[in-house]
């Protein structure tokens, strides 16, 4: 492996050591879909200097926040099969503002997040997120930590980032620390223990198929 990649991954490990305890928790199994009122987590992005990754009209009548991990198979199925329909039928029509917030249950999801956020733009982020999820079954089984990191870097390059930029993003300890603290604050505010989880206009829902999702959105649009 290139020396610069080794240095970058080492920086991640050292910076995260003090706060990695919550990122090592195994995600709990997804429960049946229910709606639960949750606390307001607005303002955490500004507090930690983290950019919210959103799609849709800022003034859309419904706000959907997804909490997902790049290593979560259920999240991959949601992004590959359900989100495209939500995007076509609700986001692109101006009815839903969709925000994706990463959950860091493991280091590999963090590495993917650092690469996806590398240029700070939402278009690049969602493009890379689509690539990470559509190829998840391949890169998560690449083998060693170094092999997985190489696969993630390869996806980043295919997505338009150059190698030096990817290395710099992986070595950005300050950004990693901010993302971890931002994740923890949001997870505590919304009581996130499993992925994917959704907060729809202030109510928390667990994973659900498109038909159930559409039923919830249609009901809220009719209120």
Automatic annotation (TrEMBL):
SUPFAM superfamilies the record matches: Thioredoxin-like
Entry annotated with the keyword Signal: yes
UniProt keyword terms in alphabetical order: Disulfide bond, Oxidoreductase, Redox-active center, Signal
InterPro entries: Thioredoxin-like_fold (IPR012336), Thioredoxin-like_sf (IPR036249)
Top-level lineage group: Bacteria
GO MF annotations in UniProt: oxidoreductase activity
Residues in Thioredoxin-like fold domain copies: 51-219
Family membership noted in the UniProt record: Belongs to the thioredoxin family. DsbA subfamily.
Protein name: Thioredoxin-like protein
Organism, scientific name: Allosediminivita pacifica
């Amino acid at each position: 492996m290139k020396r610069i990649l080794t240095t970058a991954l080492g920086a991640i490990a050292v910076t995260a050591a003090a706060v990695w305890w919550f990122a090592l928790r195994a995600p709990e199994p997804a429960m049946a879909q229910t709606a639960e009122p949750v606390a307001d987590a607005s303002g955490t992005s500004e507090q930690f200097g983290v950019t919210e990754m959103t799609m849709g009209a800022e003034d859309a009548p419904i706000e959907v926040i997804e909490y997902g991990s790049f290593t979560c198979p259920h999240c991959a199925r949601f992004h590959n099969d359900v989100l495209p329909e939500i995007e076509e039928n609700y986001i692109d029509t101006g009815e839903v503002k969709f925000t994706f917030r990463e959950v860091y249950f493991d280091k590999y999801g963090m590495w993917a997040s650092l690469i996806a956020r590398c240029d700070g733009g939402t278009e690049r982020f969602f493009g890379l997120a689509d690539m990470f999820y559509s190829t998840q079954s391949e890169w998560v089984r690449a083998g060693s930590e170094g092999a997985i990191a190489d696969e993630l870097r390869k996806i980043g390059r295919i997505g338009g980032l150059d190698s030096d930029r990817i290395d710099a993003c992986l070595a950005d300890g300050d950004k990693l620390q901010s993302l971890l603290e931002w994740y923890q604050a949001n997870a505590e505010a919304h009581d996130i223990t499993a992925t994917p989880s959704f907060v729809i206009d202030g109510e928390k829902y667990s994973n659900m198929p498109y038909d159930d999702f559409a039923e919830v959105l249609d009901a809220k649009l009719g209120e």
